[in-house]
Amino acid sequence: MKIGIIGSGAMGSGIAQVAAQNNHDVVLTDTRQEALDKSESQLASTMAKLVEKGKFTSTEANAIQGKITYSASMQSLSGCDLII
């Protein structure tokens, strides 16, 4: 399932992470590129901590991060099966 999320704040980013961890492709959108960049950076940090704790391997963490596409265009949500 492809999931679109509008808003890359704490809640949107968290939903994106959980969806990606459950093997869904995710499109995370926000009107502000800075917010998307911050979300992507925070996810990388979170995944690094989870790797350190042994929750994921680095390969798994990279795969999870690869499931999330960050976009400032709402048109990128076309083709999503679910939009949050």
Describe the structure.
The chain contains 3 helices and 4 strands; from the N terminus they run βαβααββ. The chain has 84 residues and is α/β, with parallel strands linked by helices. A 4-stranded parallel sheet has the order 3-2-1-4. The two termini are 13 Å apart.
Summarize the structure.
It contains three helices and four strands, in the order E-H-E-H-H-E-E. It is an alpha/beta fold and 84 residues long.
- What's the mean pLDDT score? 97
Could you name the ranges where pLDDT drops below 50 across 5 or more consecutive residues? none
The biggest beta sheet is recorded as:
4 strands, parallel
Determine Rg (CA atoms, Å).
Answer: 12 Å
DSSP, total strands: 4
Strand order of the largest sheet: 3-2-1-4
User: Tally the helices: what do you get?
Assistant: 3
User: Could you tell me the strand content as a percent range?
Assistant: 15-25%
Shape estimate: globular
The assigned structural class equals alpha/beta
Query: Which series of helices and strands comes N to C?
Result: EHEHHEE
Termini separation (Å)?
Answer: 13 Å
In helices, the fraction of residues equals 40-55%
Summarize the helices and strands and which ones pair or pack:
Elements: E1 2-6, H1 10-21, E2 25-29, H2 33-52, H3 58-66, E3 68-71, E4 82-83
Parallel strand pairs: 1-2, 1-4, 2-3
Quickly list its features.
84 residues, alpha/beta, four-stranded parallel β-sheet, 3 helices, globular
